[in-house]
Amino acid sequence: MELAAREHAAASCLLMGANTYNYIFEHWGGWPHKSKRSFVVSHYDTNVTPDCGVEFLTEEPLQRVYELKQENDMLVVGGGKLLTSLIKAGLLDSLTIYTVPVMVGKGIGFIGETLGSEWKLSESRVLDNGVVCSTYLFGGNI
């Protein structure tokens, strides 16, 4: 996806949870993001790619994300648990969702309980392959 590649290139670093990190490493044959500094929010440091610019955030991870966010344009890769925590902590400025027209059966919930925040659609478009890309901007707490 060209748009996802542009967002990846524009980000100064990547942020993900441990499940996404493990999935990428196991299913993509190693660490594909060697050119980007990457941070993994986790309870435990299970880093198997320390020479690839990957750092695990295990001590006060949301505080570290806040500090990193002051100097970096971070791209969050992957999942619901981390997104939920970032939304609850007020650390997410925008959210881009790619809706892929494929039914895969029962899946993992996208975002957990995040009552109290409002998101405004800033852009939505259909890509050539039928994928819908929608970007929402944080509109404040309600």
Question: Which tags fit this structure?
Answer:
alpha/beta, 30% strand, 142 residues, four-stranded parallel beta sheet, globular, 7 strands, 27% helix, three-stranded antiparallel beta sheet
Task: Please summarize what this structure is.
The chain is an alpha/beta fold and 142 residues long. The chain has helices at residues 2-10, 18-27, 61-71, 80-88; strands spanning 13-17, 37-41, 54-57, 74-76, 94-99, 117-126, 132-141.
Question: Explain this structure to me?
Answer:
The protein has 142 residues and is of the alpha/beta class. The protein contains 4 helices and 7 strands. The chain has helices spanning 2-10, 18-27, 61-71, 80-88, and strands at 13-17, 37-41, 54-57, 74-76, 94-99, 117-126, 132-141. It has a 4-stranded parallel beta sheet with strand order 3-2-1-4. It has a 3-stranded antiparallel beta sheet with strand order 5-7-6, with no helix packed on it. Strand 6 (117-126) and strand 7 form a beta hairpin. The termini are far apart.
Biggest sheet: strand arrangement: 3-2-1-4
N→C terminal distance? 34 Å
Q: Major β-sheet, in short?
A: 4 strands, parallel
Low-pLDDT runs of 5+ residues are: none
Q: Kindly state the percentage of residues in helix.
A: 25-40%
Rg measurement, Å: 15 Å
Given helix and strand content, the structural type is alpha/beta
**How would you describe the shape?**
globular
SSE order, as H and E?
HEHEEHEHEEE
The beta-strand count equals 7
**Average residue pLDDT:** 85
Proportion of residues in extended strands? 25-35%
Annotation field: number of helices = 4
